[in-house]
Automatic annotation (TrEMBL):
Membrane spanning stretches: none
Name listed for the protein in its UniProt record: B12-binding domain-containing radical SAM protein
Species, as recorded: Micromonospora tarensis
Key words, A-Z: Iron, Iron-sulfur, Metal-binding, S-adenosyl-L-methionine
Keyword Metal-binding attached: yes
Alphabetical list of PANTHER family matching this protein: ANAEROBIC MAGNESIUM-PROTOPORPHYRIN IX MONOMETHYL ESTER CYCLASE-RELATED (PTHR43409), BLL1977 PROTEIN (PTHR43409:SF7)
Residue span(s) of domain B12-binding: 132-273
Amino acid sequence: MSGTVKAALIYPPLTDPTSGYHSLNYLDSYARAQGHRPAEIIDANIEAFHHSYTPSAYEWLRGELSRLSTDDLTGPDALMARANLLNLPEPDPERLRRSIGVLQDPTLFYDYRHYQDAVEGVISWMDALGAVGFPGQFHAGFRLHPPPMISIGSVAALTDEALLDRLNRPFQPYYEDVLIPRLAAGGHQVIGISATYQWQLPFALWIARLVRRACPDVFLIAGGTEISDVWKCASKPEYVFQVLADFDAIVVGEGESAYTEILDAVETGTLPAGHPNVRLHPKYGRQRQLPLRYERLAQVPVPDFSDLPWDLYLSPEKFVYYSPTRGCYWNKCTFCDYGLNTDGPTSPWRQDTVDNMIADVTELSKFAKFIYFSVDVLAPATILRFAERAVEQGLDFRWGAEIRLEKYWSDERCELLRRSGCVAVSVGFESANQRILDLIDKGTKPEQVRRTMTAMTKANIGVQMMGFTGFPTETREEALDSVTFLRDNPDLWTLGGLGDFMLTPGAIVAKEPERFGITNVRPVEGSDIVRMLQYDEPVTEAAQAEVAQAKANLNPGHFHRPWLGSTDTPHTFFYHDRYGTAVRGVLAHDRVRHDTDDQTQFLANGTFVDRDDEQVWEAYRRIRSDEQDGVPGELPADRHLFRRTDGLVFALNRSSRLFLDLFTAPLTLAEAQRRLWIVEPAVADRVWRTFIGQRLIRRHQLPAEPAG
């Protein structure tokens, strides 16, 4: 092809602002290798964030907040919105700029006290920004918490223009002032939107609607994991293009060759009907559905990341994603539902050659110091050969990946991985109970897992643990086996923890419910895009609450994604590179009460929520009860709610409030003790330890910033 088609590829909000994602660069690099001109790649997620604090957008935000009303909402949505407006932070663009500066600074970033303050500054800004949509819609800064009907995949909600408009309102100035004028003037023939995560979907749908109005003749396409999930999980086929109505076509599954064939077709003035992964809008007529195509990795070139806006990301280093394998070589886990094939939990297992991997990484390492192997899992023998070659050739880069904790990983092999640049791995250990592991068909044993973790840790490779409780028929004792395993081996893992089992339609558990002791398997009521199933199972609510409390105590106080403290985030890998397996202690150091703190000034890191409107306060208590570091569920009505600066809410008893109110202005612990002379020093000390550990109070003075 002559490659004359002008295309733009957009990555929409709301997702990780710390690095660019790799999906669009893989598509573009593949198309360029086939002779097409480079696409204009637009990371609308990071652009929209930075536009939000420009002078004009800030004035718009202040105006919107001054006349903010929830009168157009009814029922639970109205009560939720009013509750989330309690203690809403004032938007502070100067603090936000300082926070961004810290996150991009190669020195301050690695001082965890500066880091925490910076992240809380970003989250505070996003809380205020989100209030002009549905108050409370942004969590941890860059996770969407939309109204429930959006979350469960209601077609009526996903096609409701007023609802989508409101969710997107925080980014309205960016859309109107930057994105849409840029696209309208761009002369593009093809515009593609890629959505990787579910919380990007409402923004992708709204951008598509705006693009369709501004560029009626453009061939508009969508792809990415989330678009594939809409196609896979739609309970009726017609729902797909009811939700994705503004798109001319969608790409289901892997997209490199599909995207290229779309460009070919547009160039020749035809429809891209020949590729099995392309689904045309029904307005183009009935199509024959062919089996999905999976790419040959040898034909996929190394992605070129040079056109991403690296100066905008909230990180001090470049961090790129690289996918030399697809699918999972194990492909047996009964809980797994990933990929689009019908004969196993994930897409077919493929891996590139070690020669190609070395060539690709050699090229990528010239551009970025950190390379994350964004794969389902890497095969042990392949990793080892790759590591040997990387050491032989003297490649200087840092990397991490998801692996299985096989007995293959001896001390010597782990040491080789570390010499090749591996700083951390993440592992799905799932459970520490053998019966549950056998039900999962994991193929591992807890004692072997512990030995492999030991070998990795000895090599100074951080082990990030991923597991869950609540697998069908799991008893209280079996769930606590996993908690005990992590609690008793704190020096063998750095970050991670235990989530909750969720049943998805493609999992073997859902296909064979009787084998796993579950009954009444059913979609969530009101869902049309069925991503999750409900079922009846024997674990009691009391046991669940006890297990939840035990899990919360494993790794308290860390930030949620996309920040440091979460598994596999860029920031987590940066800290692993700097501090090795000691990273857990680094993160804990500022959450510990030190002997020198008697003369250190502390300040309350948030405010109490007023009870002026008892109905709203009760709603706030119920809404926030699932979001604190503790047991989910209802909270005692007599608790005082304290909103930490990052938006996390804690339910404190009356005596805790008496202690915490001392720190509304900077105060040393010694002076606080003197004011509470009636309280035993040992009791007060336990309170200070708790407050510091949960960052309810913070040290008032940050470390001095380096000169120059």
